[in-house]
Specification:
The chain contains 23 helices and 5 strands. By secondary structure, the chain is mainly α. Among the domains are: 139 residues, no CATH class; 63 residues, no CATH class. The protein has a 3-stranded antiparallel β-sheet. The chain has a two-stranded parallel sheet with strand order 4-5. It holds the Pfam family DUF6589. This is DUF6589 domain-containing protein. It comes from Favolaschia claudopus.
């Protein structure tokens, strides 16, 4: 018959008891006495601690000691002391390695599961509006930083050396490299996780990137396959077209211009093949800012005012008023000061001075972006009057012919397009509705085209001769601007020349 072993009480071994009160002994003496006792019974300190902690159960008289061992910060202090010793740190690392690896793997799985769930939910919510407002930093990097801190720490450690981590202050690898790697990992866990792959695929199609390159990047988890990307592009186009249809029912502005697409680089074309260059028209609808009352876009009062309006004269309609001249003079003075201090670090403290800040008239709200709705590019060429009429009819194809009889649509275009619209209005002036007469289109020059014509005017007035030092033609030859020989050269190149001449002449004056 089995008997239950009896655990001796604390007074069963009088030889191990203290013969004096240990409270008054020095700490070293107490420790040495305990070590002597353990040595006398062939029990090491580690064996003693292990044996005490192994005994579990409510009936165990050592249970209070076990509870006290785990209470407080004693265990952490013990591990810290051992870690400071090289021999102890090696033992701890070798002992904890399997457990720490398992815990790290568990944590990484949890982080990626949470990240994949959020990405999948955001992928389901992808709409044309979301694609227009997609922001890699906000939509992906911040989410990865919040949900996967340990994984990002591992990737950041693997991506740069300790020296680069301390000294590199210009290159930030987190938003681009690490976030992109996490997106690839999330897509590897689930093929439906395409939060980053969707905008990246659309970008590659817009470049345009060759089909083989897109399929190669798809295998790397960066984008979708070419066929899927094309389907996504078509779905996005349909969605944007629906958004444009909704926006066009409210107050909106319109702009369109010709589009020329090169379809082949071959000199000779075979029969029934696409032409070498396909001409068409791209149209964009813009929402009007601060439009609170549709009555401001009533067309009939505008047309009535046009009929009564007198001819425009310079003195009454073009020449600036006294207050406008004062504002212009003030802006010119500030611009001159800006040129004088350009490139001189000694005047950096002056640049932010309130006296040098240009006055803003009718500023948009902070962070405001004009909402744009691009329509399908058509093969209708707007370079003729008939083509312009067909483009306008195609834009408002879903409208009834009388829907815009009393609604004005501002349109901002280049001079040629505005001239063609005006020609179409004259040609259709006796038609039955405003849409067919093109009366709803109230033309105005685009700001870019005004600046373009202004720069061409400056070039024409100040070009001069190459032999004339100080003329624009002299600087064109000096700077080797070969693309500025025509009367109407490239805008960006011309603006670059004008700014280089202004700032260069200023630097020469300062150094004289």
């Amino acid at each position: 018959m089995a008997t239950t072993p009896v655990i001796p009480g604390p007074h069963s071994y009088p030889a191990l008891c203290w013969t004096v009160n240990p409270t008054y002994l020095p700490e070293i003496a107490r420790l040495q006495a305990v070590i002597d006792i353990l040595r006398s019974i062939n029990l090491s300190p580690m064996d003693f601690i292990t044996s005490v902690l192994v005994h579990r159960g409510k009936d165990n008289p050592l249970a209070p000691n076990i509870d006290g061992f785990y209470r407080g910060t004693g265990l952490e202090q013990l591990l810290n002391v051992v870690m400071y010793d090289k021999r102890g740190s090696r033992g701890l690392f070798s002992g904890f390695q399997p457990h720490s690896d398992a815990q790290l793997i568990h944590d990484i799985h949890g982080e990626m599961d949470s990240l994949s769930e959020v990405f999948l939910q955001k992928t389901k919510d992808v709409t044309p509006e979301a694609m227009m407002e997609f922001n890699f930093e906000e939509d992906i990097t911040e989410t990865c930083r919040d949900l996967t801190p340990k994984l990002r720490f591992i990737l950041r450690t693997a991506a740069q050396t300790k020296r680069a981590e301390k000294e590199n202050t210009t290159k930030d690898i987190e938003p681009q490299l690490i976030s992109m790697i996490q997106c690839q990992l999330a897509k590897a866990r689930s093929q439906n996780n395409n939060l980053y792959a969707i905008p990246c695929s659309l970008y590659f199609l817009a470049c345009p990137l060759p089909r083989k390159a897109i399929d190669t990047l798809n295998h790397a988890g960066i984008c979708l396959a070419y066929k899927t990307s094309k389907g996504l592009h078509s779905a996005l186009a349909v969605g944007n077209l629906r958004r444009a249809q909704t926006a066009a029912r409210s107050g909106h502005a319109l702009g369109f211009d010709n589009e020329n697409v090169t379809l082949s680089e071959h000199v000779e074309q075979r029969p029934f093949a696409p032409p070498k260059v396909q001409s068409g028209t791209t149209s964009i609808i813009y929402l009007l800012r601060s439009l609170f009352d549709m009555a401001t876009l009533r067309l009939l009062p505008i047309l009535e005012q046009q009929r009564k309006a007198e001819l425009i004269t310079f003195n009454s309609d073009v020449r600036p008023t006294y207050s406008q001249m004062q504002s212009l003079r003030d802006d010119f003075r500030k611009s001159i000061v800006e040129l004088l201090i350009h490139g001189n670090k000694n005047y950096d403290y002056v640049r932010t001075s309130p006296e040098l800040q240009h006055t803003s008239y009718r500023p948009p709200p902070p962070g405001y972006k004009t909402q744009e709705f691009v329509l399908r590019t058509t093969t209708i060429d707007e370079a003729t009057t008939e083509g312009t009429i067909q483009v306008c009819e195609n834009i408002y194809l879903q409208y009834d012919i009388h829907d815009l009889d009393d609604t004005a649509v501002p349109t901002y275009n280049d001079q040629k397009t505005n001239a063609l619209i005006r020609s179409g209005q004259l040609q259709r002036r006796n038609d039955v509705s405003a849409i067919l007469r093109l009366e709803h289109l109230q033309i105005a020059p685009g700001a870019f085209h005004m600046e373009l014509n202004f720069s061409w005017m400056i070039l024409r007035m100040h070009r001069g001769e190459g032999a004339e030092i100080g003329s624009l033609q002299y600087f064109i030859g000096l700077l080797a601007k070969t693309r500025l020989g025509s009367p109407k050269p490239d805008f960006e190149t011309l603006v670059s020349l004008l700014m280089q001449v202004l700032t260069g002449a200023n630097d020469r004056l300062l150094n004289a």
